[in-house]
Amino acid sequence: MDKRYDIPFYTYQILDPIKALQEIKEWAAFHHERVDGSGYPFHYEGKELSIGSRIMGVADVFAAITENRPYRDAMSKKEALNVLNSMVEDGALDKEIVGLVTDNYEKLSFIRSKKQQEVIREYSLSF
């Protein structure tokens, strides 16, 4: 199995026996699936993906490209929206959810930034 498949696949396997977490299991394990079926680990597509899984997929990309990482700076709003919309055009992300991100970009970016700062602060205090 390709190494990138490991975490979503094992997330699915670990959470599967816990019936109370079935919905969360899907959100967590399917966030790398793509609307066109090109994602992983199961290659689900379109209606096979719950709205929660599609939201998590968009949120994962949004966070990855809009937050500073040790190896690169965050993308600008214009760059980030270009990436998200390009992924919609390529059939990877849900158009309606990306539209909601576009319409609420500043609010989402503020929340993401605030949470990122809190985590960095907490992490720094733990050492």
From TrEMBL:
GO terms for molecular function: cyclic-nucleotide phosphodiesterase activity. PROSITE patterns: HD_GYP. InterPro entries: HD/PDEase_dom, HD_GYP_dom. It holds the Pfam family HD_5. PANTHER family: 3'3'-CGAMP-SPECIFIC PHOSPHODIESTERASE 1, CYCLIC DI-GMP PHOSPHODIESTERASE PA4108-RELATED. It comes from Orenia metallireducens. This is HD domain-containing protein. The lineage of its organism: Bacteria, Bacillati, Bacillota, Clostridia, Halanaerobiales. Residues 1-117 form the HD-GYP domain. It comes from the Bacteria. One of its GO terms (biological process) is cyclic nucleotide catabolic process. CDD domains: HDc (cd00077).
